[in-house]
Amino acid sequence: MPKTKLENVIFTIIMAVIMVYGMIVYNVALNTGGVTNATFLMALHEMPIMVPVAFLLEFFLVEKLATRLAFTVVRPTDRPQLITYAISTMIVCIMCPTMSLIATLLFKQPSLGTWVQTFGCNMPMALIWQLLFCGPLSRLIFRLLFRGGQPA
Question: What is the residue range of 37's domain?
Answer without folding.
Answer: 5-146
